[in-house]
Amino acid sequence: MRFTREFAGVSAAALALLLAACGTAAQAEQENSGPQVDSESVATSKRKPKSTPEPTPVPSVKPSWSPTSGDKTVYLTFDDGPGPYTQKVLDVLKENDVKATFFIIGKMIRTREADLQRVYDEGHATGDHTWDHADLSRMNATEIDRQLNKSAVAIGPKMGPCMRPPYGALDGEARKLAVSYGMTPVMWTRDTNDWNKASESQIYNVLMGTKPGDVILMHDGGGDRSNTVAALRDALPKLKDKGYSFASVPVCLPIANTQ
Ligand SMILES: [Zn+2]
């Protein structure tokens, strides 16, 4: 893929700097759009141009992200792809005009570039889910670096400045490293348990229990996701009828979408 090749020669350090820059922009956008506004970000965004150049601000990626929305926005997230069900998930999202976030496993892209391209073409956000679904809490700094940066290079420059740790396992060192690369960790507030062989009706019931601001954990890879697709197809129109809207996780938007 074009951007994969372009990024093949980028060093991890250079990528970290790029992502750190992206993270600053995305974080500022998120903070400026919600009620819990970071005063430092507002001060930066409203600062009038001065005649003397200012020092480059230090990227301020926070150690975690939580939805601040008081409205009925919901954040659908799909982990472990791209896989055989990614296109089906994308079909359902498109049918319902819904935007979501995909946490990508880097090594999967080698055989599924078209799936990732469609994720981008249809306006969804992406984040890093490590190179091969690693448990970062069991790794040393060198291994964590490789897992996050090799995957980020494969996902390409449209990847949002965010990550989700496989198994939700993120100890202090891994969190610190992710943040130092400019990747905001994004967890979830509602688990469909589709990773644990939940039935279609079980997944549907979890979806229909959605509350405003929920970040919903689902999967488009890692196994048979036909129940996920079917439950999503049933639930999305009903949730929209109940007044819910759907958006990509703000801190996962690529920098081009935050300006
Ligand atoms: Zn996963």
What do you see in this structure?
The protein is an alpha/beta fold and 259 residues long. It has one domain (2-45, 73-257): TIM Barrel, CATH 3.20.20. 40% of the residues lie in helices and 12% in strands. Strand 2 (101-104), helix 5 and strand 3 form a beta-alpha-beta unit. Helix 4 runs parallel beside helix 9, helix 6 crosses helix 7 and helix 8 (200-208) runs parallel beside helix 9. The protein binds zinc ion. Residues 79-80, 129, 133, 166 line the site of zinc ion (ZN).
Instruction: Report the radius of gyration as a whole number of Å.
Output: 18 Å
- Low-pLDDT ranges: 1-59
Q: Give the CATH level 1 class.
A: Alpha Beta
CATH architectural label: Alpha-Beta Barrel
Instruction: Name the hetero compounds present.
Output: zinc ion
Strand runs, count: 8
CATH overall fold name: TIM Barrel
| Span of the ends, CA to CA | 25 Å
The CATH homologous superfamily: Glycoside hydrolase/deacetylase
Helix-strand pattern, N to C?
A: HHHEHEHEHEHEEHEHE
Number of domains: 1
Tally of alpha and pi helices: 9
Which descriptor suits the 3D outline? globular
Average predicted confidence as pLDDT: 82
- Please report which band the strand proportion falls in: under 5%, 5-15%, 15-25%, 25-35%, 35-45% or over 45%: 5-15%
| Strand-pairing-aware structural class | alpha/beta
